[in-house]
Amino acid sequence: MDQISAAGVAYNQDLTHKTILVGDSGVGKTSLLVQFDQGKFIPGSFSATVGIGFTNKVLTVDELKVRLQIWDTAGQERFRSVTHAYYRDAQALLLLYDITSRSSFDNTRAWLTEIHEYAQDDVVIMLLGNKSDMASARVIRREEGEKLAREYGVIFLETSAKTGLNVDEAFMTVAKELVRRSVQLPIEPRFHLHDLMEPEKESSGCCGFS
Ligand SMILES: Nc1nc2c(ncn2[C@@H]2O[C@H](COP(=O)(O)OP(=O)(O)OP(=O)(O)O)[C@@H](O)[C@H]2O)c(=O)[nH]1
Ligand SMILES: [Mg+2]
Fold first, then answer.
1. Residue 123 within a domain
2. Sequential pLDDT tens for the chain (210 residues)
3. If phi over 0 gives left and psi between -120 and 50 gives alpha, with beta otherwise, what is residue 193?
4. CATH of the domain at 59
């Protein structure tokens, strides 16, 4: 059912946008989703994701309800073919690297090549430099991330799943871009970070792999 937004555009609020988190193992995909979904960070032991699961969230963009179905994937190489299968009908992809890991940044080019090979041409892509709280261990300068994002024409932010820096902003930016593209808005819709709705946890699923 179309809803007319404050910007005077019609947007179908029943749409659910498949959004996938990708990037090397250990960059913080699961931690970023837990921070966004539950507002918490579980420090310490790292348990690599071995399956794939999703969380549903509803955000408010320009008084419109935007439904994201956010899939967390396993970054380990051995699960890569599984991840490919999820790219096909994704409307948005958040590609993470770890600002303390040169290899995770260098591998983003390979991830972007895979995305262009397996995902839809109009998929929204965000490049996120995660762990920005680890300033003393930083090896990737923000400028390097910005330069790569400009080269590939994707949106860039640095985030911290630990402090929450830019985590809501990252998902709100994706939601705003999805609305803009689905209504071909000539103008940027306003969005209100503060009125991010409480998550309507309609369901979350998982299909772990043994
Ligand atoms: N300081 C800091 N540590 C983080 C941050 N994000 C994740 N971590 C830590 O980094 C490790 C890996 O985080 P995960 O979220 O499990 O990484 P992942 O990308 O899901 O890894 P895979 O599931 O193997 O693909 C964990 O020990 C986290 O606590 C962050 O923003 N800051
Ligand atoms: Mg994980």
1. yes
2. 566 666 666 778 888 999 999 999 999 999 999 999 999 998 876 778 887 788 999 999 888 899 999 999 988 877 777 777 888 889 999 999 999 999 999 999 999 999 999 999 999 999 999 999 999 999 999 999 999 999 999 999 999 999 999 999 999 999 999 998 887 655 454 444 444 444 444 445 544 333
3. alpha
4. 3.40.50.300
The answer, yes or no, to whether any atom of ligand 1 lies below 6 A from the CB of 107, is: no
Query: Which ligand is the nearest neighbour of the Cα of 46?
Result: 1
Between the CA of 51 and the centroid of ligand 2 the distance, in Å, is 9
87 in a structural domain: yes
Name the residue range of residue 124's domain: 2-204
pTM: 0.85
Number of domains in the chain: 1
Query: Which residue's CA is the nearest one to ligand 1's atom 26?
Result: 46
C-alpha 28 to ligand 2 mean position (Å): 7
Task: Tally the C-alpha atoms within 13 A of residue 101's C-alpha that lie toward its C-beta.
Answer: 17
Query: At which residue do the structure tokens 């999703």 appear?
Result: 54
Mutate-to-test residue for ligand 1 from 21, 24, 30, highest number of ligand atoms within 8 A of CB: 30
CB 145 near ligand 1, within 6 Å: no
5: three-class secondary structure by DSSP: coil
